[in-house]
Amino acid sequence: MKKVLIIDDDYDILSAVELTLETHGFDTIVSTSGRNIHEKIQEHSPDLIILDYLLSGKDGTMICSNLKRNQNTKDIPIILFSAHPTAKDMAPNCGADSFIPKPFSVNELLNTVNCILTDNSHNH
Amino acid sequence: MGSILETMQKLLHWAAIIDSSDDAIISKSADGYITSWNPGAERLYGYNPEEVIGQPVSMLMPEEKEDDFPWLMESLRQGKKVDHYITKRKTKDGRVIDVSITVSPIRDTSGQIIGASKIARDITAMLEQERQKDVFISAVSHELKTPITTQSVYGELLEELVRKNGDKKYEKYITKINEQSKKLVKLVNDLLELSRMNATTFEILGEPFSIDDAVKSVAEDMQTLTAKKITTDLAIGRNIIGDRERIAQVLTNLISNAAKYSPEADQVSVRSYIKDSSAIVEVKDYGIGINKEDLQKVFKRFYRATLTNTQSFPGMGIGLSICKEVAKKHGGDIWAESQVGQGSTFYLSLPLDGINTSAQ
């Protein structure tokens, strides 16, 4: 079962994404902040990270850039998601593998997740 | 004598109008030197006539708008009028203000251009109001997105569950809820798009692309969403300069409207062709049509046609205003012809020789 780490400071979105992925056969770990992210990754070894673009406290793009620069985490695919209108243009700059605009549908979320995981398994 | 007196009276009358105008009204020579300066100009720019008459008009242009001078002079040489051009100008005390200017060539009795009149209006306050309104719309739409996302996702999961359990009655209810959620999502996205479009920072890309390919691709995508046959007849056959994604958004809107407003018809026709150095895309439906009065207003924000029959169509009336903005940003236009009961044809025209930058 593929494991997905979901990070969003909005608890309702977090729960909705968690429930969607769990009911479609994924294992999930959730967090409302980017704090201790390295410890979480080390503990759970996620196959994918879904990260909010603007987190209160720490910028999602900063977290993404840091993870992509780190040798231990650079190969974990990251999907950024956001309601911010210009976030899509910014996502590639921080190394994110994909972007999902909010609001999104269950299908959009699942298609993007499956697509990224398939691509990643081919590349490794 | 009578005629000289009449002429004098007329001149004095015009002089009084110019002197009392709130707008800055100035004139310049054919080579760009200021020749007259009304009190409105003095109030707007802070210079008195003695300080500016005989000086180059470029002294009023801030560094960021220095490029205005060559193309405004070129327009003047060609005898073209520049209408309501929104730009920036510099005042005596160094402030940079937003102005809307209209420059009209002045000709002598033989028709030769001897200079230009320029009317400038301070629109700083108006733009600030627009900006605040856009910030408000953007903030509201953004705040709405989070609850809408949660609502849509839970709704869809519930629909999956109800379908799996085979409960037809609840399936109907939840399908209705989800349909409305989708409409909400579209409305919020449209609102955000509209506020972005009006933002002074909004820019469109200017890259070569095939308008025929864009039409074909949108028509194919839309065909998967409608039972009506979408026919295409594409004859532009060359690239234009513009923003492919934005144009595709306009085409999607036009084709989707054509399908939506022709519930009884089984066809939507899309044609593309060149006319008077413009690329034209024509989207024709055979639906309910739009009456003359409504036809003038369909491109206005939040306007929705009032239908004489009992049919109702979803939407908030902002899709076409977005289309108009995109067309205008390209230096093009969008318009419609229609007959009630016979259908409507919407036309999108885009300049073949690239984006008209003064339109942005």
Describe the structure concisely for a colleague.
The complex is a heterodimer of chains A (124) and B (360). Chain A has 124 residues and is α/β, with parallel strands linked by helices. In chain A, 43% of the residues lie in helices and 19% in strands.
Task: Walk me through the structure.
- The complex is a heterodimer of chains A (124) and B (360).
- By secondary structure, chain A is of the alpha/beta class.
- Helix content of chain A is 43%, strand content 19%.
- Chain A is built from five helices and five strands, in the order E-H-E-H-E-H-E-H-E-H.
- Chain A has a five-stranded parallel beta sheet, with helices on both faces.
- The model of chain A has no long low-confidence stretch (mean pLDDT 89).
- With 360 residues, chain B is of the alpha+beta class.
- Chain B is built from ten helices and twelve strands.
- Chain B has helices at 2-20, 39-45, 49-52, 68-77, 124-165, 168-198, 211-223, 244-260, 292-295, 319-329; strands spanning 24-29, 34-37, 82-90, 96-107, 113-122, 207-210, 229-234, 239-242, 267-275, 278-285, 333-339, 343-351.
- Chain B has a five-stranded antiparallel beta sheet, with helices on both faces. A five-stranded mixed beta sheet of chain B has the order 7-9-10-12-11, with helices on one face. Chain B has a two-stranded antiparallel ribbon with strand order 6-8.
- In chain B, a hairpin with a 4-residue loop joins strand 1 (24-29) and strand 2.
- Residues 307-312 and 356-360 of chain B have low confidence and may be disordered.
